[in-house]
Fold:
Amino acid sequence: MGETSERRRWMAVLAKAELAELARLWDALPDKPAWRRLRAPESGMVMVRGRAGGTGQPFNLGEMTVTRCAVQVADGAAGYGYVGGTDRRHAELAAVVDALMQDPARAGAVERAIVAPLAAAHEEARRRAAAKAAATRVEFFTLVRGED
Structure:
């Protein structure tokens, strides 16, 4: 994977994370860096677009609230956090982790300590939801009478 797609992956994991789990993993991280806010957490609206059937013409589905934040850690890397909803702490923690993930010396440790556990938790939640939906699935079939 390229650098952009890797960053997209971890930013998606951070955005989808439950704040309580992200905060718990952050608190357990040793050697937390100092950071300063480049852009304080702020909430706003974005337009969500969809496609009929996933491949059709795009259309405006509606608006959703997002919160964004930009920080700079002590070593100079800038990180950005965009999360659904209005949780400012979630956006700020996501931005700090994004900045740490850009440092090759820290990326592996931060991946193991924060990003991988969050990705595993999200995948487990997705798997449970899929299993619950599959349990309600109904199979239809047609019987042919054979008179034709």
Q: What stands out?
A: The mean pLDDT is 92. The radius of gyration is 21 Å.
